[in-house]
Design brief:
single chain; 214 residues; mainly alpha; 8 helices; 57% helix; elongated
Length: 214
């Protein structure tokens, strides 16, 4: 006698997405490594863009020190502001993409995004400062009075250096906040089962009546 519970047909089980059948011990580490690699590449590219968009300030040496005008001070500050903007936007975009594409294990994705953003911030700073001229304050010690030296990209405080991680976490959090309540990844794409049909014999059977005792 059937109890009304039927197992899904084999063709329905086979209709799951391919990634749902893969072992999480393979997929999750691969997604984490991919996240780190993408963050590293984008961080290096952001360092190049940081240098290319920066207006190099100019100054003059006097008494073993480097002096610049008001425009030079403005350009020097612009370097820090550009770092914050580029790092924040880059981290935001990568955080959104990582949360959207790698949703198999959210905690692993979060850890990979944090680690990747730290690597990206380091590479961005290293690439940008490597492409920029040397520190004029150091070069002025051995330069002659009247020599003109260009300014250098630099981010002295730690707060701006956290812009990449801040942007990445904001992007990650936005996607997670919007996607609350979505179905789990493992059942996405699984076709719905047909409604259970009622047995004709059960539908036509008349209820049994009982006669109360006299």
């Amino acid at each position: 006698m059937s109890d009304g519970l039927t197992a899904p047909a084999p063709e329905i089980l086979d209709a799951r997405p391919d990634r749902a059948r893969r072992s999480p011990w393979v997929v999750v580490p691969a997604q984490a490594l991919a996240t780190l690699a993408v963050f590293a590449v984008v961080g290096a590219g952001a360092g190049w863009a940081w240098f290319r968009l920066w207006d190099v300030p100019s100054g003059v040496v006097a008494g073993g020190r480097w002096y610049t005008d008001e425009a030079g001070l403005r350009d020097d500050f612009q370097g820090v502001a550009l770092y914050v903007v580029i790092a924040t936007v880059s981290g935001l975009v990568l955080g959104v993409l990582a949360a959207w594409a790698f949703d198999r294990a959210e905690l692993v994705t979060l850890a990979a995004v944090i680690a990747g953003s730290v690597v990206a911030a380091y590479l961005m700073l290293r690439v940008g400062t490597h492409l920029s001229p040397g520190d004029p304050h150091e070069l002025a010690r051995t330069a002659q009075d009247g020599d003109k030296l260009s300014g250098a990209l630099r981010v002295r405080s730690w707060a701006p250096r956290g812009s990449f991680t801040f942007g990445a976490l904001v992007g990650l959090g936005l996607v997670y906040a919007v996607s609350i309540g979505r179905p789990p990844t493992e059942v996405r794409g699984l076709p719905s089962l047909p409604p259970r049909s009622t047995s004709p014999s059960a539908a036509t059977a008349s209820p049994t009546s009982t006669v109360p005792p006299a």
